[in-house]
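Look over this record as teaching material.
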Amino acid sequence: MRVYVPLTLPGLAQAHKAGELGPGPLTAYAVTPGLREWYVSDDIEELEYAALNRAAAASLRLIAGDPGAARRRVVVAVDVPDKDAAVDPDRALDAGALGEVRIAAAVPLAKAAAVHADADDAEADVTAAAAALGASDQGDDDARFVVDGAEDHELLWFGVQEIPALLG
C-alpha cells in the first residue's frame, strides 16, 4: 500500500540523517475505504492524489506548529505492507481523519518511492496559510480562503536521491 507521510523540511532532514521515517507510530494518509466513499471515484490515481492532498494539509498543520520550520509542505510517499497501515475505527466519522492511517513502527527511508514538496514560490502562501489555520478552523471564511491559497500550489515530485538537494 502506498502511504503519504506528512513532514516539514526539518522532519525530512531528520529522516534523511536517521535513514528512516519515525519513530512510530507515524500518521500517514492512504486510499482507505472512507476516502474511497468520500471521493466517490474508482480511479486509483485520483484516489492517491486525494490521499496526497490530505497529507499536504497535515504537513501545513505541522508547519503551523513549528515556527522554525521552512514554510514548504513536504510529503514522503512510502510503500508499506497493507497490514502495517491501520485505520483508526474511532475516527471513522471525523472528516479530518479521512484517509488517515497509523504505521506502528519506523519505516526505512529506502522504502520511499518519492518526496513531494512545495516549490520556493509557494512559501508566501504557505506562510499565510499556516498563520490562518486557527481562524479557518473556527469558521472564518476569509481565513479559509487564505488556507485554500496554499492548497492551490501543486507539490513537486522529487526522487529520493534528490533529498540532499531539496534540503539544500
In short: Helices lie at 9-18, 33-39, 44-64, 123-137, 141-151, 163-167. The chain is about 40% helix and 20% strand. The beta strands are 2-7, 20-21, 26-29, 74-79, 85-86, 100-103, 107-108, 112-117, 156-158. Residues 114 and 159 are 5 Å apart (CA to CA).
